[in-house]
């Protein structure tokens, strides 16, 4: 298995105006991440890929294209989580056969699943695929909170190697790292990366790394070296950029920033708004000139 630590881009997907996958654009986004952002890996099929609005076949198509384009250049993590466990297993087997280095699965959502049901979901995907697993915890979207002891229960399965922690609860993050130092944590909120890095996370997985991956690495590496003032200065600029991106529409604005660099990043997939208004395009241009020139 490849090294999964470091800066992992949550891969954006380019869609055509009718919502179909724009393969050429997706390949360009992948190349941009590897060649320009110099990321350590790609997290494929996450929130940033607009995954939860796709059919099983479309999810497979994206896994296939990403593997074909990235080959073995960077670590590849396939997010296969779904409220349909059968789909998760099918996707997990598919990505494993393609050669993905690791799986990840969002905690099952919508229904109020018990912890025993959540644990069974992870154990079942792992048993059926034989691959390693990263828990994807994103309570603000799923409503699922996992406590310190529950992480311990999940980690009894030796194939669960850690958690993608998309939350601002740094006390919980610190307690989990303290309790399970051999399990990995990837920070999920790019705007809080420095705080997470100071607490010893092993890497970060984020949407904004598609365009701001170089700064993300600087923050992470400075923090690891104990150069906090330097890291903070870069986090400040990063957060000025992220604040602008969030105010303008997260994925569409990142796509627009890629387009301004010649990448065919396409549209978003409905029911998300498909494209930016002319005013928002103009604002994205300002962000590009100010922060990513
Ligand atoms: C909901 C969401 O998009 N969260 C992002 C963050 O990178 C986030 O976009 C960023 O920190 C801005 O808030 C990641 O945690 C999600 C992610 O890695 C994924 O695509 O699954």
Automatic annotation (TrEMBL):
Give the UniProt entry's GO cellular component terms. cytosol
Q: Name one GO molecular function term.
A: N-acetylneuraminate lyase activity
UniProt-listed Pfam families: DHDPS (PF00701)
Instruction: Mark the transmembrane ranges.
Output: none
One Gene Ontology BP term is: carbohydrate metabolic process
User: Which UniProt keywords are given for this protein, alphabetically ordered?
Assistant: Carbohydrate metabolism, Cytoplasm, Lyase, Schiff base
Query: Which locations, inside or outside the cell, does it occupy?
Result: Cytoplasm
Protein name in the entry: N-acetylneuraminate lyase
């Amino acid at each position: 298995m490849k090294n999964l630590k470091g800066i992992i881009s949550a891969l954006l997907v380019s869609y055509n105006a009718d919502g179909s996958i724009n393969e050429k654009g997706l390949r360009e986004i992948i190349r941009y991440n590897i060649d320009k952002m110099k990321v350590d890996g790609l997290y494929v099929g996450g929130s940033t890929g607009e995954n939860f609005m796709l059919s099983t076949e479309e999810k497979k198509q994206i896994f296939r294209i990403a593997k074909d384009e990235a080959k073995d250049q960077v670590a590849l993590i396939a997010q296969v989580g779904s409220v349909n466990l059968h789909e998760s297993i099918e996707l997990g087997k598919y990505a494993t056969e393609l050669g993905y280095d690791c799986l990840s699965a969002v905690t099952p959502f919508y229904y109020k699943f018990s912890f025993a049901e959540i644990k069974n979901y992870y154990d079942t995907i792992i048993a059926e695929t034989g691959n390693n697993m990263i828990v994807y915890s994103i309570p603000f979207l799923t409503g699922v909170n996992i406590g310190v002891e529950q992480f311990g229960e999940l980690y009894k399965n030796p194939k669960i190697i850690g958690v993608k922690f998309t939350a601002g609860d740094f006390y919980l993050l610190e307690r989990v790292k303290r309790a399970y130092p051999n399990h990995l944590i990837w920070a999920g909120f790019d705007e809080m990366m420095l705080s997470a890095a100071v607490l010893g996370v092993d890497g970060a997985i984020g949407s904004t790394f598609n365009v701001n991956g170089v700064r993300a690495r600087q923050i992470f590496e400075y923090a690891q070296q104990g150069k906090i003032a330097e890291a903070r200065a870069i986090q400040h600029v990063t957060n000025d950029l992220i604040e602008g991106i969030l105010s303008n529409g997260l994925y569409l604005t990142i796509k627009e920033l890629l387009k301004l660099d010649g990448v065919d990043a396409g549209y978003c997939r409905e029911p998300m708004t498909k494209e930016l208004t002319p005013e928002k395009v103009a604002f994205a241009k300002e962000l590009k000139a100010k922060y990513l020139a």
